[in-house]
Amino acid sequence: MTEKPASDGSGQVDVDADITTGARTVEGAVARGPWDYPRHWIADVLASDGGVVHLRPIVPDDADRVVRFHAGLSERTRYMRYFGPTPTLPPREVVRTTTVDHQQRVALVAVLGGEFIAIGIYEGLAADGKPESAEVAFVVADAHQGRGLGPILLEHLAGAAAENGFTRFEAEVLSENPNMVAVFRDAGYQISRAFDGATVHVEFTIDPTEALLSVRNARERASEARSVANLLRPMSVAVIGASADPKKVGNALLANIIAGGFAGPVFPVNGPGHRGDDTGEQAHGGAAAGHHAVGRRVAHGNPRLRDRQRPPSVRGIRAYETVRDIPDPVDLAVVAVPAAVVGDVLDDCLVKGVRTLVIVSSGFGEAGEEGLASERRLLEQVREHGMRLVGPNALGVANNDPQVALNATLAPRIPAAGRVGFFCQSGALGIAILDTAARRQIGLSTFVSAGNRADVSGNDLLQYWDTDSATDVVLLYLESFGNPRKFSRIARRVSRTKPIVAVKSGKGALTAVRAARSAAATLDDRIAQMVLEQAGVIQVDTIPELFDCATIFAYQPLPRGPRTRIIGNSSVLGSLAADTARNGGLDVIGTVDIGAGASEEEFESAVAAAMADEQVDAIIVVFVPPVAVDADWHARALMAAANTPDADAAKPIVTTFLAVEGIPPGLMRPGPNGLPERGSIPSYGSPERAASALANAWQYARWRARPESTVIRPADVDPEAARMFVREEMAGLEATDGERTSPDEDTPDAEPTGRLLNEVAAARLLTWYGIDVVAFGEVRTMHEASAAARELGFPVAVKATSPGWRGRLDREGVRLDLPDPTAVVTAFAELTELTGDRVLHVQKMAPKGVGTVIAMRDDPSFGPLISFGLSGSTFELLGDRAYRAVPLSDRDAADLIDAPRSAPLLDGFRGERPADKSALVDILQRISTLVEDIPEIREVTCDPILVSPDGAAILNARIRIGPVPSRRDTGPRRLS
């Protein structure tokens, strides 16, 4: 697109032509001023190299930055953008570029370190002011080309354009610039091209499609994985706050990095204000046990005295005053300085080009409201500097890859190399977790303790581990979730190839922070469990259970089925294992008691027989050694029986070998480095724990073996009509109503926001998505009631409309099965007198069936959730509801219907014909599609839905609309 200043036809630019408000506005919308842009357009995004870039709308104050940005472009880049030599931007063009209306003309800028590195703009083309097509263009600074900023700008411009009612983008591209056409195509859009001599005209619709979302997710996955790779695979490390005092945090960090044998150079930084022993240093919140800050006053004024006090080296390595003084590149900076001087460190790191930070310093969010405010400022500064952050208040990170050998943690002991990735938040708990993993011989590939988790989160690590060939199993210890909806989306993909085991920390741990303090925490825990199960995540309650699962996943194959044989020399312990196995969903097909005096040959024969039996899928071996008997024979027999050359015939074996936890030496199959490898047999402290671990492995194997389901979008929907209708209904709502822009501001106990549509409007909106409410009419007089009944056809029902009379157990607010006009008039008179309602509903009677309820609510912790259960006060009081996260696949919908305890009533009860559950699946998928397409829909309730053998009839529907509370996983991709 060639930007042309407004002109009066004589070649003179008309500076006043629509500069302050834009040329046109969306029909029915209020014109925006140049400073009045939607705040949710501001976003931090990841470039393809993993670096952070800040996006925001342009404003008039950006004029100087635009001039500097343009001046820094190469001659070729300016030619490709403006179709001709444009050494400088005319002042009027600068004004036009920076003064837009954020509707008909939108410009977004990418900012790094306070300067522009890319600009994207669209401008509407319709002459009548009705939004449809807009021309789009963008330009990226030469130094930042190849970082994927073009597709990012295009994605966010398309999101803004869609909000303003546009459906299509157009662009003019020089034929000698094929890379620009590739940007449109590689972004996932289906483009059409027309050649006109020296230019190519490109057009494409901007509505999100499955292909487009797939491309966006793939780009997000690659960039987030790359950003974590920058963290875990650095070529060099600087320890800022390195100290010569062995009691200091900075000294411990440096010592662990050196002792771990890090493959690259390590640079201590120990200048004034950057010393780990400066006054005011914050000890890591419990994680730096034995490394408390003593603090001493730094000498000021006498340079010689300062030089004498500053050690020229730390632990025999030359120290530098600032990270800027380091002559070589620095990829990772580990920061252990007082919180008050972290800002100076960030400035130095920006100049140096540091990619990632690990901040172990405390004094931020964990220290109260003031610390939380400091943490938010810290994150803002880190993002503005283009970096990613682990922490603050973090324990650190580790990578056991021999080519990296990074131990940038405060933990005195980390496990040996293995194939398990571990993420946790708590630093103090992280040390205990690492020690436990080492004792159990669970080898780790990588470890991240995120502390306050201001930036890098479990979601980022999942993206990395998904692509990491060195990681087979993922362990998560989570205290809170900032973006559970995104977690569910990512985990569903990762779980297809790698088991994810998550342990929650107390009630509400998998929800937003405030949900843990609310009365709804128990319900949130139940929802969390269901959402995690939907994504294939194994959820456990304790750290021992976490490692129990990790051990079997790391060393044993998955069971092919639930059929389990228990072999042992104690009938009591065998019985305990059998009971736990059955409760966990395993089928115990035999308990073999070989007796306390069984020989090594008898023991081996029993296990070998189970391994060869095609009716056995898994084996639990319970062994109690007789008094004064060497137990080595048990290990030899077990390993000999388990050793099968046919990998396809391998079956998981778990045991209780001397109540040892982990991999006993006798049951270890050593790898090249002498550490346990696959085929080693895990041991557990009790038969119950062995059986539980095997049951969890079977539940995961069963989930993974199911064919991958897809989100099916119904063909007979009209999203454009529905969107326009919702926009019109929301016209009177306040723009800030219901907005919550961060997890910390979520208020799950607050009153619902937005506006409730009347039932006629709700039914009309559902119709555009193929969801029909049983025909009804609003009536205000007896004559209208009689006429509506005749039009609908008898029999009919007359119903009160006020909430207090709807759904009463005594059914006093409704008259059913009315056969003629006389009965309708009588019912109208009775109900108006009884309820005082001035408006009643006359509705066609639906076929009898089982009453059910489908509801969607925009949960502050999980995003849109759909629930299902049987209708009625009894089931509501019992809490018999099942939940799933949106979007729903066909299998998700079917599982949701079968999940409530009362679901068997739909399958036929006491001779009744089974209900048509496929009709419910169809309704669920249509509601899922509706709320995905239109996030302004905050709540949908269909209650009751009568399900009969011949279909499902919705008798009542309620819809609440309102401003989107958060955009954590909808629209253009962004960092939380």
TrEMBL record:
<keyword id="KW-0808">Transferase</keyword>
<dbReference type="InterPro" id="IPR032875">
    <property type="entry name" value="Succ_CoA_lig_flav_dom"/>
</dbReference>
<keyword id="KW-0547">Nucleotide-binding</keyword>
<dbReference type="InterPro" id="IPR016181">
    <property type="entry name" value="Acyl_CoA_acyltransferase"/>
</dbReference>
<feature type="region of interest" description="Disordered">
    <location>
        <begin position="282"/>
        <end position="314"/>
    </location>
</feature>
<dbReference type="InterPro" id="IPR016102">
    <property type="entry name" value="Succinyl-CoA_synth-like"/>
</dbReference>
<dbReference type="InterPro" id="IPR000182">
    <property type="entry name" value="GNAT_dom"/>
</dbReference>
<protein>
    <submittedName>
        <fullName>GNAT family N-acetyltransferase</fullName>
    </submittedName>
</protein>
<dbReference type="GO" id="GO:0005524">
    <property type="term" value="F:ATP binding"/>
</dbReference>
<dbReference type="Pfam" id="PF13549">
    <property type="entry name" value="ATP-grasp_5"/>
</dbReference>
<dbReference type="Pfam" id="PF13380">
    <property type="entry name" value="CoA_binding_2"/>
</dbReference>
<feature type="region of interest" description="Disordered">
    <location>
        <begin position="732"/>
        <end position="753"/>
    </location>
</feature>
<dbReference type="Pfam" id="PF00583">
    <property type="entry name" value="Acetyltransf_1"/>
</dbReference>
<feature type="domain" description="ATP-grasp">
    <location>
        <begin position="763"/>
        <end position="801"/>
    </location>
</feature>
<dbReference type="InterPro" id="IPR013815">
    <property type="entry name" value="ATP_grasp_subdomain_1"/>
</dbReference>
<dbReference type="InterPro" id="IPR036291">
    <property type="entry name" value="NAD(P)-bd_dom_sf"/>
</dbReference>
<dbReference type="InterPro" id="IPR011761">
    <property type="entry name" value="ATP-grasp"/>
</dbReference>
<feature type="domain" description="N-acetyltransferase">
    <location>
        <begin position="53"/>
        <end position="209"/>
    </location>
</feature>
<dbReference type="GO" id="GO:0016747">
    <property type="term" value="F:acyltransferase activity, transferring groups other than amino-acyl groups"/>
</dbReference>
<dbReference type="InterPro" id="IPR003781">
    <property type="entry name" value="CoA-bd"/>
</dbReference>
<dbReference type="Pfam" id="PF13607">
    <property type="entry name" value="Succ_CoA_lig"/>
</dbReference>
<dbReference type="GO" id="GO:0046872">
    <property type="term" value="F:metal ion binding"/>
</dbReference>
<keyword id="KW-0067">ATP-binding</keyword>
